[in-house]
Amino acid sequence: MMYTQINILDLKNMTKNTKIIITLGVLTVIMPFLGFPGGVRDTFFVFAGIIIAVLTYITNKFSTIENTKKETEEDHAPTFEENKEEFIEQKKEKDEQSKKESKEDIEK
Fold this sequence. Notes:
Number of strands: 0
Largest sheet: none
Number of helices: 3
Distance between the termini: 70 Å
């Protein structure tokens, strides 16, 4: 029987934002046990929370942009030969429509 190794923390393939988020998360977990005064601890929690929220938003925004670019590629070849003619007709219609829209934009 062959086992494959699963690497949960694959640091080589993580982005910088992901590494920062994980580090702040770990620090947030151990912070109450480090013996810092309450004010320092509370300030750290506020800044860590803000940084985690901002980095998560940025990371998610860029990842969704990349995913939508990959999913919306319209110039792909048809999978089946039966769809070939339909694909060519749709492509021609889209090209004609875009030409009409560009002419209308120029006229305005």
